[in-house]
User: Fold this.
Amino acid sequence: MPAINRVLEANLHNSINYDPKDVSPRPRMQLAVLTCMDTRISLPALGLKVGDAHMIRNAGGIATDDAIRSLVVSHYLLGTNEIMVINHTDCGLMKASESELHHKIEQEAGKAPNAAVHFHAFQDVDANVRQQLRRLKSHNWLEDRVKIRGFVFEVETGRLREVHG
Amino acid sequence: MPAINRVLEANLHNSINYDPKDVSPRPRMQLAVLTCMDTRISLPALGLKVGDAHMIRNAGGIATDDAIRSLVVSHYLLGTNEIMVINHTDCGLMKASESELHHKIEQEAGKAPNAAVHFHAFQDVDANVRQQLRRLKSHNWLEDRVKIRGFVFEVETGRLREVHG
Assistant:
């Protein structure tokens, strides 16, 4: 059975216990988290419960324009006032350079992409967190309004380690 | 105490039960989910367990260039072959037009943004899901390689409802 059909069965089952009164669109901790899509990063692993925070996730946990758009919506429309940026050890984007990634995928796809893709490959996870902090802290819709801190999630131990910007 | 400090305490506590052998960077269901950052959307609400899927999340669950980058990494580097696009009812992006959002935030911030922000506001959630499906299905690094289906998560009931592209 396709994965999606199994998800739909589980959703139907779990929805029995879903009560809209238990959840609010406004994050309980007034917190937004920008992190990687990686399977090892989850609410319980980070120390969060359902409803605590907005979760913004992409490959790497990068402060792209899209992540900034989401953080602006989170702060101005839904009242968050702290941001955690979380990258992690053993990230897929650390395993090849930008051009190696591009070459590998273009070769496997057998064609160039419709539009250029920038993968945001990186080699040093601490330096990468600092780069995301710099991007967020220099956005004039965020800089002086939201507290922004950076972390590495160590997939070996499940622990968050702070990286100062 | 700042929210982030409370998260760090909870993370330290939860990491006692974290075992790296329980988790893999490759999603167990070979599934990637693109959805909204909204607090009401969680793994259990959708019908997922930790490790099942890549979670790509932004304001709205929009197939931006950044989301496409993440889905490409997910498929080519980490073996996913199905994508669920999930928007939801009562989304903050449905409550104002693009220009109303821009005006409201610029007024509150007291300054224009460093660079133009496109919020991806929408009015009709089914039509919005179909638009994201079209974007993904027309990307030539995804179109003929990955099964892509679209859904609305009904925050009133916790149920997923399929939207055909």
